């Protein structure tokens, strides 16, 4: 069995648990950058040289073989370039979701199976039993949302040993096992943007291009920007609007038009949507019959609110009708469907009304 070890406490304890259970375990760390110094380090790190060393030390304590797999080129193409291209198209991607889909459970799993391993274990906080993906018992750390893109075949070769434990229990266990990462802070934000400045990162790759900020209610140009890619639907801060709204209330980004380089703003009430269309649907549970809506719930962002809904598959599109309106729904985000705490499917949001 292969244990993917990020260098954090979760993956270290996950590897220790499956080794202790009697599995023949090999630990691997993914080298995701040709220049690891450009990635975030310390409390906000992920997949840096520091993390590689932490993963190796954890493998030594556990007593399992350890290797580093170079996935830098694949990561750059499938995650970093995808991130830039999605923003250029006026969408808001989730790079962690894409990394799980394309790297950890496609590239890594494919290589693992080819080498004769039967499964890949990770430190994700989610429960998996008989191919059924469920939320973690620790609601605050639940990561089933970012795993919702996985297919049933991928889930059949995955193991998530931490789903029945809280994060506090995982840290306590790491300390008992003598793992130095027991108190290592969790990673946050986007690993490949070293200083956390997404707008600057995108500007460096897409260049700057001045465009208008338009008020949806009046049609007037109320400001300007240096690239529509620097905004996302629902954004309130950093709009640099030159004139206040007539009602004196804050304005939010309502839409982004990359062709005309126009950002449209308006009141919060205009952000409300009840209908969502998703593309590239993935079903973890039984595939619903076309034109037969199902009652379920949907989560629209990591650790976001859950909405009751009716979901209906129509060809290659998923139509979701929300019971109550949601705000800040942006194309490019993931929509993950649940039946109770069980993931039943997902799609990438293409539009919302």
UniProtKB/TrEMBL annotation:
ATP binds at residues 4-11, 30, 123. The keyword Cytoplasm applies. Keywords: ATP-binding, Cytoplasm, Disulfide bond, Nucleotide-binding, RNA-binding, Transferase, tRNA processing, tRNA-binding. Its EC number is 2.8.1.13. SUPFAM superfamilies: Adenine nucleotide alpha hydrolases-like (SSF52402). Belongs to the MnmA/TRMU family. This is tRNA-specific 2-thiouridylase MnmA. It comes from Planotetraspora kaengkrachanensis.
């Amino acid at each position: 069995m292969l244990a993917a070890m990020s260098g954090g406490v979760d993956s270290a304890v996950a590897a220790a648990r499956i080794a202790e259970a009697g599995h023949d375990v090999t630990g691997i760390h993914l080298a995701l950058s040709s220049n690891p110094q450009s990635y975030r380090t310390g409390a906000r790190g992920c997949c840096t040289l520091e993390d590689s060393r932490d993963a190796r030390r954890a493998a030594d304590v556990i007593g399992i073989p350890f290797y580093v797999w170079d996935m830098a080129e694949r990561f750059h193409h499938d995650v970093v370039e995808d991130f830039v291209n999605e923003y250029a198209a006026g969408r808001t991607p989730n790079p962690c979701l894409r990394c799980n889909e394309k790297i950890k459970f496609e590239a890594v799993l494919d290589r693992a199976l080819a080498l004769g391993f039967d499964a890949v274990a990770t430190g994700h906080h989610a429960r998996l039993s008989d191919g059924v993906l469920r939320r973690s018992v620790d609601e605050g750390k639940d990561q089933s949302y970012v795993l919702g893109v996985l297919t049933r075949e991928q889930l059949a070769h995955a193991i998530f040993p931490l789903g029945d434990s809280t994060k506090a229990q995982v840290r306590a266990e790491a300390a008992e096992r003598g793992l130095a990462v027991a108190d290592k802070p969790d990673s946050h934000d986007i690993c490949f943007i070293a200083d956390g400045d997404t707008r600057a990162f995108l500007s460096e790759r897409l260049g700057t291009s001045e465009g208008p900020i338009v008020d949806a209610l009046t049609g007037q140009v109320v400001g300007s920007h240096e690239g529509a890619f620097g905004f996302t639907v629902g954004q309130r801060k950093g709009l640099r609007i030159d004139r206040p709204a007539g009602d004196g209330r804050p304005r939010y980004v309502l839409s982004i038009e990359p062709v005309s380089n126009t950002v449209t703003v308006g009141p919060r009430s205009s952000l409300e949507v009840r209908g969502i269309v998703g593309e590239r649907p993935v079903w973890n549970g039984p595939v619903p019959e076309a034109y037969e809506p199902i009652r379920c719930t949907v989560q629209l962002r990591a650790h976001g609110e859950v909405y009751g809904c009716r979901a209906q598959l129509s060809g290659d599109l998923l139509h979701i009708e929300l019971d109550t309106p949601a705000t800040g729904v942006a194309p490019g985000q993931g929509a993950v469907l649940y039946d109770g705490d069980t993931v039943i499917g997902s799609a990438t949001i293409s539009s919302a009304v």
